[in-house]
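WARN no homologs supplied; continuing
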Amino acid sequence: MKEWLQKNNSLTSIRLVQISLALFIFGYHDVANMVVVLVFLLSLWSLGKDGLKTMIQNKYVWFFWGYVLITLLGISYSSNVSQGFKYVEMRLLLILFPVIFFSLRNSILVLTILRWFILMVFAGAFIGLINSTILYIQTMDFGYFFNDNLVSLINKQATYYSIYVNLALVFIVYFFGKFSDKEKAIYLIIGSILILFQILLAVRISLFTFLILIFLGVFNLPVKKRRLYGASAVLGVITISILSVLFFPQTINRLKSMSSNFRYEFDNPNPVNHFNGEVKSENWNGLTLRLALWHCGIDIIKENPVFGVGSGDYKGEMNLQFEKKNFIYALDQNFGVHNQYLYSWISFGLLGLLSIYLLILPSARYAWLYENHLYLSFVLIFFLVFITENALNRYMGIYIYGLFNSSLFFLRTES
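OK structure emitted
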């Protein structure tokens, strides 16, 4: 058995990562984590002392690990120690995945993970559409085809699943030139369904990111192709917009609500505009709610600018700000600051702000220098996601971030 494992260690690790990813997509998070730990132990065994020494000398690995280490440091001056350790436990994936993919460093095997991810995201979307169709037949409520309703069966939220869809679409574009004609036809269908699914999820930041990715993709083409593909992209966006207006009023409601009002009062008792209801200017919307949450976060930073409040005290401090401002709606909904950059400053001070930028800027520079367009697209997606979400505070965000931040980094210049 030992001899077989030594011979097939890389393939075994990849198969286990595939199993973990499938479990994760379909909502079995605890089991997915256990499989990652198993792969991590196999990777440590494979690396040995010399491999570990080489890995530790890689400065980028320390950038990946830094956010976990700063979380651990923040426990030392946190009053809610148990909450701080919960964040450390969740973020250990940022340590495990770099070790796994450093031990692999096999482009063919890594690309297997990317293709598997496309299929799993598509499978999750397909199951969501089937489930929504059944619910629609039972209730005649078209709202089941939108937002969180589409992914509730697999224990996901629309915000995070929309990130997975954008990544899957980027991977499809990357692979497209390498596909056979038969595969191209299959993946065109998969890509089209995923674009439809993205529209139905109606997550504004992901739709905005999708448009940016299209623009950058066209801009990166040779000049001769740029006009043709650029015109096709513009025509495609216009077509999708017209179809959305005609057939997906719930998606339009999500976008429309952002412009319904730009002012807010903390004591506003009204709910957030819902995609399946009338857009009202007196309600909270996605923009005003986040502006109010960011306001509260900035007030905490003003009181604790250098060291922050500690790993475990972030939520308690946010709630205190909500109480001070009579922000009852945020208290009732248990909101956070909805911004990874502000969260990092609130929790860990200036070192926290530095640590989050060390996750983004060196990675972007590395991807640019080595022309790793896949990795650059990944970094861009999460750079934008971090503006509106605490993605590294949620398992649904940190698993995918840890997995692809490591795998795409060690893919090197294969893009």
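DSSP finds 18 helices and no strands in the chain.
OK
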